[in-house]
Amino acid sequence: MSNGVIQSVLTEKRVFPPFPGLVENANLSGMQAYEALCEQARRDPDAFWGQQARELLVWSKPFTQVLDASQAPTYRWFPDGELNLSVNCLDKHLGTPTADKTAIVFEADDGQVTRVSYRELHARVCVFANGLASLGCKKGDRVIIYLPMSIEAIVAMQACVRLGVTHSVVFGGFSSKSLNERIVDVGASLVITADGQCRGGRKLPLKPAVDDALAMGGCDAVRKVVVYQRTGGEVAWNEGRDVWLHDLLAGQSDQCEPVPVEAEHPSFILYTSGSTGKPKGVQHASAGFLLWALMTTRWTFDIKPDDVFWCTADVGWITGHSYIVYGPLAAGATQVVFEGVPTYPNAGRFWEMIQRHHVSVFYTAPTAIRSLIKAAESTPDVHPRHYTLDSLRIIGSVGEPINPEAWMWYYTQVGRERCAVVDTWWQTETGGHMLTPLPGVTPMKPGSCAMPLPGIEAAVVDEHGKELEAGHGGLLVIKRPWPGMIRNVWGDPERFRKSYFPEELGGVYLAGDSAQKDADGYFWIMGRVDDVLNVSGHRLGTMEVESALVAHPLVAEAAVVGRPDDTTGEAVVAFVVLKRDVPEGAEAVELGKQLRDWIAKEIGPIAKPRDIRFGENLPKTRSGKIMRRLLRTVAKGESVTQDVSTLENPAILDQLSKSV
Ligand code: WT7
């Protein structure tokens, strides 16, 4: 985050009390109730979590133990209990009035709307699960899902957990190379994909990336590729391996016996960037994950039977897992699922959809808010003021710090000064919200994610693990385990311990963010402390982009840093040393384009550097260490005022200051 944003956040003094109308009926109502719950969780965590798990989840075999900490930091929650996640999201509602309620309102890119009730969704999941079972999928297998936003994607994920199959969803924007790495790492036996996807009025192919990924090798375990027909375009077909989804599902029964799994059974693995080149497979459990997704859906979004919830994330990210596929379904909510993009057919699409579907709880990312602010300034027709947004009562934000200016616009222009803004801080690894204001509890401060949820013990510490006083920036840590927490880095327990429970901190969970607490106990997130960038709310490892650049035949060395950006939060800036002389003019532009396309192919379009700088070397200390601190200054276009006396080659900074 830019220093400007940190400054404006830290001098923010405005406070907005919660609205009495929201407080009165909230699932968690009033500061006293919140504090009592926090106190209960602190005093007797086992009793607190045990009660929640018994009341909110349906167990096929009840648990007798709440937390097994004997192998910490590998915590085991409700270890002797058994359940099925799909039963908890679907079957549970069948004998109730929720059965005939709309579960999903799907709006396609072209505006076509499809509604699915809980009963229908249950039947579709059973049919799909039977299809998967007919291909030999069984408990313990791993299945890769590479699908566009669709009812099918949700059904596929639910069908996997119905069989005890561990899913690993790969966002459709990732390249074939990234897809290959995930297929190999997870040891997938099956891939579920689509012929293509519809976004922004265009049809984009998807299956070719799967064909390429499988041809790259290491995927021998993949027996079948199931293909959902979405765009109807031509597709290359691998006889014997590829199966159309509609053929697979034809004639399957709509009854499917759910497979009970142990509470700790891996429900899914989701890859996210870390500080080394290789993304981490974040492994989540079954019971604990679902419990936390459900508890937070009920608290933060205050979900009631009449709500229409809309989370704009893609199911390829954790936000889509927790707040599209699991939390809202387990809560029996009606939710909107959107295939397209916020700017098609125009930048009023979100507001128009809120109006059309009477959305009452809306959840999106600061990067989307900032780009829609810009759009409303340049094209006044798409300003939210032209839409009826009376249905809204809670509006949420996730993915990166929201600057107070964007917060105020969201609060006044979208929320019309009568909606709670919930700025939710959490991570792929936390499974659900950790720090957030609650609609019926918390006075809101623009730019602060407020306070931890009951059961969560957050603190700001120094590098030795010593807790810091209010007003001092430090490392954000979570001092006690919670059910939704990451269980392992898939296949790499050593990396799990080192990344999240470093010895120096004495056993607490290290989030990787810096933060500070103010005198009222509010947390203010300042950004990542590791080599992870946040581009449009998506995590990107600088090392990951560097390794991809260095893999290009022309590149000798590369360093990647983030630069603050008004719309995307951070933008990728790459400093590149070629194996030849430094290019200039048109040639530099051409090579820059080549490298950008290369990154799109190696990782995905989201990782494309905004800016590429060529130099004959990188700024290094005499011992050969790249001085990234200086590169960050250069990337911002600022002049270097830092001490450069330890620099071997100070002249290089001038050369690297020029963008191509
Ligand atoms: C990182 C986690 C959790 C779903 C989306 C991102 C940043 C997330 C906030 C927020 C400030 C935030 C943090 C965190 N972040 N939400 N409300 N305020 N920063 O999940 O890809 O795992 O990224 O996103 O830096 O560590 P993720």
TrEMBL record:
Residues binding CoA, per UniProt: R199, G200, G201, R202, T319, S536
Cofactor: Mg(2+)
Source organism, top-level taxon: Bacteria
InterPro entries on file: Ac_CoA_lig, ACAS_N, AMP-bd_C, AMP-bd_C_sf, AMP-binding_CS, AMP-dep_synth/lig_dom, ANL_N_sf
This protein's UniProt keywords: Acetylation, ATP-binding, Ligase, Magnesium, Metal-binding, Nucleotide-binding
One Pfam family from the record: AMP-binding
CDD domains found in the cross-reference section: ACS
Domain named AMP-dependent synthetase/ligase: residues: 98-482
Gene Ontology molecular-function annotations: acetate-CoA ligase activity
Post-translational events: Acetylated. Deacetylation by the SIR2-homolog deacetylase activates the enzyme.
Domain Acetyl-coenzyme A synthetase N-terminal residue range list: 34-89
Residues that, per the record, bind ATP: G399, E400, P401, D423, T424, W425, W426, Q427, T428, D513, R528, R539
Binding sites annotated in the UniProt record for Mg(2+): V550, H552, V555
Domain spans labelled AMP-binding enzyme C-terminal: 544-625
Reactions this protein catalyses: acetate + ATP + CoA = acetyl-CoA + AMP + diphosphate
Keyword ATP-binding: yes
N6-acetyllysine: residues carrying this PTM: K625
EC number: 6.2.1.1
SUPFAM superfamilies: Acetyl-CoA synthetase-like (SSF56801)
Family, similarity comment: Belongs to the ATP-dependent AMP-binding enzyme family.
Function noted in UniProt: Catalyzes the conversion of acetate into acetyl-CoA (AcCoA), an essential intermediate at the junction of anabolic and catabolic pathways. AcsA undergoes a two-step reaction. In the first half reaction, AcsA combines acetate with ATP to form acetyl-adenylate (AcAMP) intermediate. In the second half reaction, it can then transfer the acetyl group from AcAMP to the sulfhydryl group of CoA, forming the product AcCoA.
Name of the protein in question: Acetyl-coenzyme A synthetase
